[in-house]
Write a structure and sequence with these properties.
Blueprint lengths: L1 H19 L5 H38 L4 H13 L24 H8 L2 H11 L4 H29 L4 H29 L3 H26 L13
Helix pairs in contact: 1-2, 5-6, 6-7, 6-8, 7-8
Length: about 230
């Protein structure tokens, strides 16, 4: 109500001045008075409309899947999380290696420099055809299987107190392997074409490589100087 006092007083003074001058401006004064009284109402409606627009805009931003403030932070968070070392990431391109992060930076660096990966990358660079890439992946799948077997034996010899727990863990992994491989084949097959076999072979190698990394990470806690079975020489 305080906001309307000033316009009304000005209008009243204008009307009084019109009468004093002998002008028949009563109707005009009334019109001006109405217009003056409507102005605050229109301003209020405009403000309300503006606030409603802001509210709708804020609501649409919160609900929109494309909101950069929401999905961006989630993507950032997802990107900063360590990948699982039990399964290969879906959609990995043939010839690429999954980064292994176990929470132990010293081990992660040691594994990153393992001779199997170094030799694999060299051979994959020389693989020209899809058949060549499948052959390379299958070769290194076999090598990683050997690493799993040898690393597990070393772990069992050193981890006397936890031998049973590691045995149960390995048994569970072996039990889950057929289903995991079937999932890999189905996923690769959905791509279709000549790349299906390439993807299946590459992801299968990743599967065994990640299991080897897990066992070696456990072995590292007992023997940081462990060596790999494979030797490029």
């Amino acid at each position: 109500m305080k906001a309307m006092n000033k316009p009304i007083k000005l209008i009243a003074l204008a009307a009084a001045a019109a009468v004093a001058l002998g002008l028949a401006a009563c109707s005009g004064g009334a019109s001006s008075s109405v217009a003056g009284s409507d102005a605050p109402s229109q301003n209020g409606q405009s403000a309300a409309s503006s606030e409603a627009g802001k509210s709708e805009s804020a609501s649409s931003q919160e609900q929109s899947p494309g909101d950069s403030s929401g999905t961006g932070s989630e993507s950032s968070a997802a990107g900063s999380q360590a990948p699982s070392i039990d399964e290969p990431a879906e959609g990995e391109q043939p010839g690429q290696l999954i980064d292994i992060e176990t929470g132990n930076a010293a081990f992660d660096q040691k594994f990153k420099n393992n001779p199997i990966d170094q030799q694999y990358l060299k051979e994959m660079q020389n693989a020209i055809s899809n058949v060549d890439m499948v052959t390379v992946s299958e070769k290194y799948t076999s090598l990683w299987k050997t690493e799993i077997e040898q690393a597990y034996k070393k772990l069992q010899n050193l981890a006397a107190d936890d031998k049973e727990a590691y045995a149960e863990e390995q048994a569970q992994w072996e039990k889950d392997t057929p289903a995991a491989l079937e999932k890999i084949y189905e996923s690769a097959g959905s791509v279709g074409g000549s790349l299906a076999a390439v993807n299946a072979a590459s992801q299968t190698m990743d599967y065994y490589r990640t299991r080897a990394a897990q066992i070696y990470a456990e072995l590292y806690t007992y023997d940081p100087e462990f060596t790999y079975e494979f030797s490029a020489g």
